[in-house]
Amino acid sequence: MTTKSATPRPQGRAVHSMKPRQLTMMGLGSAIGAGLFLGSGAGVQAAGPAVLISYLVAGTLIILVMWALGEMAAANPNSGAFSVYAERALGNTAGATIGWLWWLQLVVVIAAEALGAAALLFSVWPVIPVWALALAFMVAFTGINLTGVRNFGEFEFWFALLKVVAIVLFLAVGAALLLGLLPDAASPGLATLTSDFAPQGLGGVASALFIVIFAFGGTEIVSVAAAETEDPERSVASAIRTVVWRILVFYIGSVFVIAAVLPATSESLASPFAGVLDAARIPGAGTAITLVAVVALLSALNANLYGASRMAYSLAQRSAAPRFLSRLGRAAVPVPAVWLSVAFGFIATVLELLFPERVLPALFQLVGSTCLVVWGSALVSQLVLRRRADRAGLPMPLRMKGFPGLTILGLILLGLIFAVGFSAEDSRLQLFSTFGLIAGIALACAAGARFSKGTRGPE
């Protein structure tokens, strides 16, 4: 594994303007979004309280992936992150394929976040149609991402902090409700959890697993942002530790409360946080948490747009994307890469106008399993690069403990998730679609590299 000092950075790289606290909050901001505020309800509907098993499995996997990514990012902070690491471990085509796959995943998620936020806001303020709200969000956050990483990071910090505070308050209210401490609300206790823990059996857990995987997707953006963070070696280690345990507490805690309060057949699972607070009979709390959920989705949109633009920028620098995407504007922002990354979001708003309430579910289904491939590439890359670094005696700022056992455990968990996915009809189709997409991207990347080499001529 090459270290920062051994790897010269390309000319024109964006400056180190992001602060460590902003990096940590970005990791939270990208992961705590539509997957938690909307997807958690869908997970409970699919598996009942047994969705907690899905979250524990996915949570264990994301801890291992983040540790592996943290080790590589601290040694070599790069805006291409796992795409660069896959390139160095597995070859140019593999690196370009992973980079484009993650970029496609994020541009779809950006559209999903915009539409999800618009739908939630419309539910409490039915004045402006969903498609118009989504369009306004896309315009606003495109502007924010064009103003420079320092302003973007500060904006993301406060956005993410707001939803963290809201989730902590939600957990407190949920605990009070379950313990019977709220005078005007009947406590369900643990009856909902114990009466029918897994109504759909293993198939329900498998179906929920892919919803959960989508929920955790985006956490890996910390490794991308490391390239523009002050003192990346120390910042990455701190951010990885903080983001991992906070996400697990917020996700597992929130889903436990939701599954304990709302049965799998409850219509309130369409907006599960509001449903729980309505059950607690706190006046106005349902509307308030819905507005917080809007902020949460917009925060995730903001972070994911940043990540997508930086990945496109990195691919262009490595000749795996059109060269114009590597151009930086006055604020050291890759302006063409930002515009390319928001294009699909604008298209999705038009589709929402033409096909109301049908675009968002389709987007959730499309990107669920691509996270697994990206995480798998990170684990394999870390396994290869760490062994290479150990053989060469290279120093590393951060070393993953339990290597190679924990990395191999992550790959085993990943293999089991794929096996479970292929056993269920719905997820099987999603996996085949993902592998077909990967094959298409890989062929395009290989052909593009050969064409680029041919146009340059012999060196």
Helical region count? 19
Radius of gyration over C-alpha positions, nearest whole angstrom:
21 Å
Largest sheet: none
Structural class: mainly alpha
Q: Name the beta content range.
A: under 5%
Helix content: over 70%
Work out the oligomeric state of the chains in this entry. single chain
Mean of all residue-level pLDDT scores: 84
Uncertain regions: pLDDT < 50 for 5+ in a row? 2-14
Order of helices and strands: HHHHHHHHHHHHHHHHHHH
Span between termini:
27 Å
Shape, please?
A: globular
Could you give the count of β-strands? 0
Describe the structure.
The protein has 19 helices and no strands. 54% of the residues are buried. Helix 5 crosses helix 17. It starts with 19 loop residues before the first helix and ends with a helix. The longest helix has 33 residues, at 92-124. The chain is globular and about 70 Å long. Residues 2-14 have low confidence and may be disordered. It is mainly alpha-helical.
Please summarize what this structure is.
The protein has 459 residues and is mostly helical.
Q: What distinguishing features does this structure have?
A:
globular; mainly alpha; 459 residues
Question: What order do the helices and strands come in, and which of them pair?
Answer:
Blueprint: H1 20-31, H2 34-37, H3 39-47, H4 51-75, H5 81-90, H6 92-124, H7 130-145, H8 149-178, H9 191-195, H10 201-216, H11 221-225, H12 232-261, H13 272-279, H14 285-317, H15 335-354, H16 359-367, H17 370-392, H18 405-423, H19 425-456
